[in-house]
Amino acid sequence: MTRTYLLPIFLLLCISLFLPSCGTSNSVWLKDNNAGMDAFRQGDYVEAERLLKAAIKEAEKFGPQDVRLAASLHELGILYSRQGKYREAEPLYRRALAIREKALGPNHPDVARTLDYLAWLYTDYTDEKKCAEAELLRKRSLAIREKALGPDHRDVVISLNYLAGLYIHEKKYPEAEPLLKRALAINERASGPNHPDVANSLYNLARFYEDQKKYQEAEPLYMRILAILEKALGPNHRNVADALESYAGLLRSTNRTAEAEKLEARAKTIMAKQGY
Question: At which of 69, 104, 139 does a domain end?
Fold first, then answer.
């Protein structure tokens, strides 16, 4: 499976579930906000910024502590983060966080979401790393999700993976390993041992071991990943090809070139069948 940097995904908040309708103003805000999100997804950052700023201006009419204002501030923060404009993004996240904490309470999942994005920002700073603060934010996000959703909720897996990723970035491997194993256990209980979600958790753990050159621990995980994906998705799925390439990388690292080449050839055949 391809190792990718996790990017924020926009979620349309169901504001109407807990806020009264505000007539025309609400419609204008929703139109600008959604259009800004669409422009962002399409890569039109200039238009996205214009629309999200308009949405913020409209949302401010609802009051300084309205969750719609927090939503638009949060989304503009994501836009700036994507462009590397970290100093512009930080105060937006901070303001959104303060609103959500006051309006929804300090232990609401939406508060955890903003904490996550702020933590991403602090680990992505090009001029100043704030890993210590990011760690505190990650821990708080995890605690919120555990309390609000239960210790075995799938969103808890997100927080576990984020915190483990931060520890790996800091080379705090002993702290990261139990988090990755707990995420795997949650997915196994929730979905069964042969679900693709389990394969994702296995991949995170395999990469963790491989990065430390613990190839004996990583190899059986890659083998299990491949078996799960072949059974769940079919032998010619794109994810199977990605798993084959990842396993081949480990084989090359352990000087088993001939075995690696067989897996790479199979992966290449799958990709050709899929039109890649």
Answer: 104
